[in-house]
Amino acid sequence: MVTTPGRDTSARGGDAALYDEAGQARFDELIAEDKRIEPTDWMPDDYRKTLVRQVSQHAHSEIIGMQPEGNWITRAPSLKRKAILMAKVQDEAGHGLYLYSAAQTLGTTREQMMDDLISGKAKYSSIFNYPTPTWADMGSIGWLVDGAAICNQVPLCRASYGPYGRAMVRICKEESFHQRQGFEILLHLMRGTQEQREMAQESVNRWYAPALMMFGPPDADSPNSAKSMAWNIKRFSNDELRQRFVDMLVPQAEVLGVTLPDPDLKWNEERGHYDYGELDWDEFHEVLKGRGPMNAVRLERRRTAHEDGAWVREAAAAYASKMAARDERIAS
Ligand code: FAQ
Fold it and tell me: Which CB contacts under 8 angstroms, 24+ apart, belong to 257-261?
């Protein structure tokens, strides 16, 4: 099949049989030159599938990620804290929406992605399957979870797929604010009473290891990394980013006055990095299989919210078709 290089959209929808030699050559050239692939460019089916997988999982993580903090909106300790938390949770909703839109440019639909999420087929970040029993958890989520998200996502601003990379730029700016507000919550607690300091430390103890696992399995067990890195989607491996995160956390923990719960954490002069202890990968895989502490609750909540929102989707569709009919009448 001969097509205009780089403009063939016939492979949309994922038919691997629609191999396009010229399109592939143009794609390879763009990747080699570290340029962007845009939605109308021809792209290999596997590249499209990898992106749909990663971008939709990322979107689901933002949407499910609203729940652990949403849990504290009504109980935030002051009006100011409540307003900040509410704004943060709304930001996460926005991130989910940009990312669903980016995934839609790859030929998948919002309905398909939502069905996959609420049926339990799609993955979302393991971190959101842990509970938030104390106010200090709002600090730990901001400091550790948003901190890990930034480490992971800043390189994604240079992802080869244009709509994903561009969405990440704005997302990272907002995550950076989120990380600081979490740090500030913990700092405030650490400068408070003994009880508040203990609450902050107890929360950091629970969130530290799961936050390190957000970067994904060790490189040797990461089946998707090699391809994603060859395609300039991922720029660094899971372990490289995890190390970067640990190195960033240690001085920040000193400022806060909290202890990171890892007896093996120590500076390695030779490597120029902090060594850290083995993580519990069995726990990670259990969470991925849906058996984490909050998996069932998170999915049930999402399902209910989806069902409760059916009337909004129906009303929006009815309004859109009314407007389309009106536009047609005016045009004819
Ligand atoms: N949780 O081969 P790899 C946030 C899966 S957003 C669950 O290494 P890959 C904002 C992986 O999907 C947080 N599953 O995979 C916020 C794959 O399964 P599959 C989300 C995980 O894609 C803050 C399998 O394991 N961020 O926090 C996890 O090359 C506060 C093998 O793994 C993103 O999604 C995990 N932690 O690397 C919101 C960033 N790790 O699909 C609210 C974009 C791995 O083959 C409050 N994503 N898996 O069945 C990425 O950078 C990558 O997808 C990785 C995984 C690094 C997550």
Answer: 257/190, 257/197, 258/186, 258/190, 258/200, 258/201, 258/204, 259/201, 259/204, 260/204, 260/208, 261/204, 261/205, 261/208, 261/209
Taking only the tens place, the pLDDT of each residue in 274-316 is 999 999 999 999 999 999 999 999 999 999 999 999 999 999 9
CA of 124 to the centre of ligand 1 (A): 7
Beta-bridge partners for 37: 161
Q: How far is residue 74's CA from residue 243's CA, in Å, rounded to a whole number?
A: 36
The secondary structure of 48-110 as a DSSP string is HHHHHHHHHHHHHHHHHTHHHHHTTGGG-SSHHHHHHHHHHHHHHHHHHHHHHHHHHTTT--H
Dist CA 192 CA 255 (whole Å)? 15
* Residue nearest ligand 1's atom 34 by CA: 58
Gap from CA of 231 to ligand 1 centroid (Å): 17
What is the per-residue pLDDT for 19?
74
Long-range (24+ apart) CB contacts under 8 A made by 188-196 are 189/135, 189/136, 189/139, 190/256, 190/257, 190/258, 196/136
Nearest CA, atom 25, ligand 1: 216
